[in-house]
Amino acid sequence: MGHIELRAVDEDDLDAIFEMMRDPDAIAQAAFTAEDPDDRGAFDAWIRRQLESPGVQSWVVTEDGGFAGTAAAFTVDDDREVSFWIARHARGRGVATEALRQLVAREPIRPLFARAATHNAGSIAVLERNGFTEVSRNVAFAPGVGREVEEIVFTLVPALDGV
What we know:
This protein is α+β, with helices and mostly antiparallel strands. It is built from five helices and seven strands, in the order βαααβββαβαββ. The longest helix is centred in the first third of the chain and has 13 residues, at 40-52.
């Protein structure tokens, strides 16, 4: 693993983000993805909404200055959630763990929540390494695999003073 940083998303990143989010293996792992990952118009509309929303913090993950993925914090139903998506070339080397560590350090709201499909062992491990614990499970339709999938909801709560 090289030097990992989070930086703001800019226009030059959009093609790389779109291509990363079309990776069939990543789609199968993430499961809860866009209905049609090849629809550039839908992607452009979605990313614009994310970048223009004051409640969404979107970051590009870089490794030694090069694109390695994305990370974000956003609010769903009054809960603050985090998410990360790491490009194929950067997986399995600690990039996601470090990116999430940096994202959590930047995000002041607690508790934080995150979600992962139960079959996504890599994301589950990254969340657990960063102190997230399972709080519930749900079953929902996952466009990335075309069927219902069990999803784990994780939380990261503030540390108690003196513990």
